[in-house]
Amino acid sequence: MYRCSRVVLTAHRASISLSSRRTLKYTINTTDPFSLTGTGQSKQTVVVLKGHLNSKLVGRQMTFRVNLTGPPPWGFRICGGRDFKRTLTVSKVHEGGRARDAGLRAGDVILEINGQDTGAMLNVEAQNKIKINEDQLCLLIERW
């Protein structure tokens, strides 16, 4: 058993660095984005990680993209923004919504909306940027 020291996620791949200085490469299952399957560098042992990749599992912060395809509603609410002096955060994810299906969770910090940084956005600006999208919404998310 190795302790995980770093996780890097991209659209379809995950790289997990272990305390043993080994790095495992995984392919993300497109039907269940929170299941990773694959082999380590030795290619002898197949490792399956089930469950959500969050701080309880990896102990580190992760940044990844969530792509939602339309039409709206997207199925989540936000709070925070420059006017509230808080980071823009997902406050609620509705059961059965597109956001839940894509893996978004309450507490996720939204760093970008369709490539635009949210650091200086007012809450209403962020809401409008989310609502204006008819076909696709791309969020850069930070999760602890």
TrEMBL record:
SUPFAM superfamilies annotated for this entry?
PDZ domain-like
| Keyword tags | Cytoplasm, LIM domain, Metal-binding, Zinc
Kindly give the PANTHER family that the UniProt entry links to this protein.
PDZ AND LIM DOMAIN PROTEIN 2, PDZ AND LIM DOMAIN PROTEIN ZASP
- Protein's UniProt name: PDZ and LIM domain protein 2
A Gene Ontology cellular component where this protein is annotated is:
filamentous actin
Q: Which organism is it from?
A: Anabarilius grahami (Kanglang fish)
Span of domain PDZ: 61-144
GO MF annotation: an example? muscle alpha-actinin binding
Instruction: Return the Pfam families for the record.
Output: PDZ
Subcellular compartments: Cytoplasm
Is Glycosyltransferase among this UniProt entry's keywords? no
Q: Would you kindly state one Gene Ontology biological process term found in this protein's UniProt entry?
A: muscle structure development
